[in-house]
Amino acid sequence: MTKSIKSSIVIGATGLVGLALIRALENETSCENITAVVRTFSPVLQGYKKVQQLILADFLMLNDRDVANHSHAFSCLGTTLKKAGSKANFYDVDYFINAHFAELVQQTDAHYLLLSAMGANDHSAFFYNRVKGELESYVKSLDFNQLSLIQPSLLLGERAEQRFLEDHVQKLYQRLSHFVPNSFKYKPVTPEQVAHTMVAAALNQTAKFETYDNLAIQKIK
């Protein structure tokens, strides 16, 4: 049975997937209001009728009152080593802030949906995948009303900041995309596909816990 999203709170709302999610929630008839947690006022988000911006210079200032009374909580927050400046700063954003948000959501009846990554593994030799895996392991140890993990492969689309490797892979993929079958589990996906998967999970998931891997993201219509 299709559920209602009604009231949602989003962190990472101004990123590539976050903005796609805001658009999807804005167009979802069951969604009545969207709280977008941002560090500074966003003129882009101001253009959405359902969005209220909660401006916090530090997301660790989020408290239980901010998160209460939402039916769904979406985390699209993430950074890069280049933008963060160090592994410690990257960990502060990708792990600690997301973990803090998850801990607050756990105290509510909200469905928590986390944007993770393909290859997330807390024993990975790759720092990025290891941090994502540690975060997944932690949130799975918490007790949510419902939990969804979204694990996309490479994301297609233009980011505000340059990502050298991703930019080159995207250009190569655009040349070869017609040779890549839909069954290829590493096939890049668009932010819209990821956002659509998050909304579909919010509306239709009945299990307490579900993981949506890259193949699932490609298949969900």
Automatic annotation (TrEMBL):
InterPro entries: NAD(P)-bd_dom_sf. This is Nucleoside-diphosphate sugar epimerase. Gene3D superfamilies: NAD(P)-binding Rossmann-like Domain (3.40.50.720). The lineage of its organism: Bacteria, Pseudomonadati, Pseudomonadota, Gammaproteobacteria, Moraxellales. It comes from Acinetobacter wanghuae.
